[in-house]
Write a structure and sequence with these properties.
Helix content: 10-25%
CATH architecture: Alpha-Beta Complex
CATH topology: Fumarylacetoacetate hydrolase, domain 2
Number of strands: 18
CATH class: Alpha Beta
Shape: globular
Bound molecules: manganese (II) ion
Low-confidence stretches: none
Radius of gyration: 17 Å
CATH superfamily: Fumarylacetoacetase-like, C-terminal domain
Mean pLDDT: 97
Strand content: 25-35%
Order of helices and strands: EEEHEEEEEEEHHEEHEEHEEEE
Amino acid sequence: MNFVFPPRTPAVVPVAGRNDFFPVHRIYCVGRNYVEHAKEMGGTGREAPFFFMKPADAVLAVPHGAVGEMPYPPMTNDLHHEIELVVAIGKDGKNISAADARQHVWGYAVGLDMTRRDLQGDAKKAGRPWSTGKGFDYSAPIAPIHPMHDTGWITQGAIHLNVNGASRQKSDISKLIWNVAETIEHLSTYFTLQAGDLIFTGTPEGVAAVKSGDVLEGGIAGLGEMRVKIV
Ligand code: MN
């Protein structure tokens, strides 16, 4: 096959504890998946799950022990952090039942769904898409992916985010409104999931703005910590 220019190498995320890399296919995100965050965003906390996407190359892979550097994005004055459990899909499928969901999970990671909240808010008011608010360059910092083989099936565990050492978000994975299995069930009715897909499962309450120079430290029990500096 003759390409008109060389195809780009895929976005990748390192695998924890191995010299392997997880090639990223698509990035799906769940909106409002913790009750208290749904309320702080103006919802009731009782709605059906809804989804948005980021481009695969929005990932900013942060190696173990490193401090990732995220450029402060253009066109915003209100960059928000959202700490999230990320599910890495390892097997294709559509119309996957919650009971079968774990067969499609390859692993888990700590991730940040960074958000230009002012652009997202403008889009909501105007009934426009969220792409500029959510799908921008470097908007998906992510720590190494832990194989489910090592972690087991995750249904609970503390999730937290500190900014410059101060606690901003603190909750537990068990508080997800739609758990990982249910999320995969719903999402796979809309899209054929493919090996390489990442699912950002939603953020707990406490989202707030960050500025250049801030250091974000996020973690999930069993998946370690991730540090990102806004530069
Ligand atoms: Mn989010």
